[in-house]
Amino acid sequence: MKKSENFWNRNAKRYDRFMRKDRAAYEKLYELIRPVVKARTVLELAAGTGLIAKNIVRAASHIEVTDASEEMIAEAKRNNRSAKLHFSVWDMFCLPYADKSFDVVIVSNALHIVPQPEKALAEIRRVLKDDGVLIAPTFTHGNGTLRGIIKLFFMKLAGFPLNSRWSSADYLAFLRQNGWTVRKSAVLKASFPLTYAECVKPSVKGRG
């Protein structure tokens, strides 16, 4: 994980510029998320520079914005104008929050870059209320197109920490295999297909 953190620390200042190419997809993403977080307490994991949190905060009652990268959180704090956002540095595998603390947990474009995403899902399940919702949009790199393969080659050269190369169907299947019920999904057109997944927390006997 340390190697991954170093990558994000190095690229924190240029992250927002890099993400501009997917602005249209992210606008659609915000539209999907806002109704779910309305008047709710939200935790965002691997939040990067806080793009999502800052664009949905008016709908939510409070958002805890976390990332394992100190530099990313430093960037996220810049130009923050909302008292409803609280920023901190935490690893998604070991969170300081009590069980069943949040109505909604958001983990966007992160499960594919961590080595054991099922463990992250287990920690999310712990801090999410029984009637809570997991929102987990993720770039899905397993479409196998020539253009996608070339992009992945250059991402690898740059040190991008890709650990899971899912197709959209594979990603949704992964969530279900870990006990989550996918109640809503969509594939948004972006630099790679952005698979939106809105999930209901597993039951006690479920995996995840």
From TrEMBL:
The Methyltransferase type domain covers 43-135
State the superkingdom: Bacteria
GO molecular function (one) = S-adenosylmethionine-dependent methyltransferase activity
What InterPro entries does this protein's entry cite? Methyltransf_11 (IPR013216), SAM-dependent_MTases_sf (IPR029063)
Q: Which UniProt keywords apply?
A: Methyltransferase, Transferase
- Per its UniProt record, what Pfam families does this chain match? Methyltransf_11 (PF08241)
One GO term of the biological process aspect = methylation
Record-given protein name: Class I SAM-dependent methyltransferase
Could you tell me which species this protein originates from? Dysosmobacter segnis
UniProt lineage: Bacteria, Bacillati, Bacillota, Clostridia, Eubacteriales
